[in-house]
Specification:
Blueprint lengths: L1 H32 L2 H20 L4 H18 L1 H11 L2 H7 L4 H30 L7 H25 L3 H16 L13 H7 L3 H12 L7 H25 L6
């Protein structure tokens, strides 16, 4: 019993060290060495909010929630470009495959590294929301849950695609298209009521729509019925589980 407990502890320690190494490699060091990328990441949502501030100042609070969701989505989707870069250009994944690291540990390490890299931008938006008066302690639990599920969905999709596509140019183009499809077209920067009825029905198929509805209700921008809240939470959770299973079972870890 003592021996099995010691083996388990050593295994957990080994995995923790591997995850920490990946976070340092792909999360902390890039922020220190190339902080300009943080500005690039912030530019997309901040420019949209700037124009919303000019033409529709009353909608800035809703746009801040949309900007936060955009950052979370970009943080998850960005994993595909990093993994393909490490796999194709640096041959880093070949070393990981040859090592005792499991695909799950590798995915967790890369995922946390993306979150660490994006954390300064996410914190900035949370501060802006607090200064705007739409963020308080009561809104944090549901806001955190909706952002977490949204991030896991985007992350799982990005990880799956990264193991299926080996051309970095295709990944860069696909990353942009996915970011637009998940964080620009759906009603996250603007009210869903502005869309015609058919477009509202289509948008309800997108996970970020439900993340936005839950987040906006959490900060007091919209009001949902119990049924609407449960439906949004269920659909978002189902999308997250489906994409997690897809990433876990269908991703190609070893090259054929």
């Amino acid at each position: 019993m003592y021996s099995s407990g010691r083996c388990l502890f050593m295994e957990l320690t080994k995995n923790a060290r591997a995850i920490l190494a990946l976070v340092m490699l792909n999360g902390i060091k890039p922020v220190i060495r190339s902080p300009l990328w943080l500005i690039v990441m912030l530019a997309y949502p901040l420019i949209l909010i700037f124009f919303i501030q000019i033409f529709a100042e009353y909608a800035v609070s809703e746009a801040l929630v949309g900007g936060l969701i955009s950052l979370v989505v970009m943080s998850g989707v960005a994993i595909q470009a990093d993994i393909v870069w490490y796999k194709v250009e640096l041959k880093f994944q070949d070393m990981a495959v040859a090592s005792p690291i499991s695909p799950t540990v590798y995915m967790i390490g890369m995922a946390i590294s993306e979150l660490v890299y994006s954390s300064p931008a996410i914190v900035l938006f949370l501060v802006l929301m607090a200064l705007r008066g739409v963020l308080d302690l009561s809104s944090i639990p549901m806001l955190t849950l909706s952002m977490l599920l949204c991030w896991l969905s985007a992350l799982s999709l990005g990880f799956y695609l990264s193991t299926r596509i080996s051309d970095i140019r295709h990944i860069w183009a696909l990353e942009g298209l996915i970011s637009i499809a998940l964080s620009m077209l759906p009603p996250i920067y603007y009210p869903i009521s502005l869309l015609p009825e058919w477009a509202q029905m289509v948008s309800m198929l997108v996970p970020t729509t439900h993340a936005a509805l839950l987040a906006k209700e959490a900060v007091g921008i919209v009001s949902l019925t119990e049924y609407q809240r449960l439906m949004s939470l269920t659909i978002l959770l189902l999308w997250t589980l489906i994409l997690l299973v897809l990433a876990r079972r269908k991703s190609v870890w070893r090259e054929p």
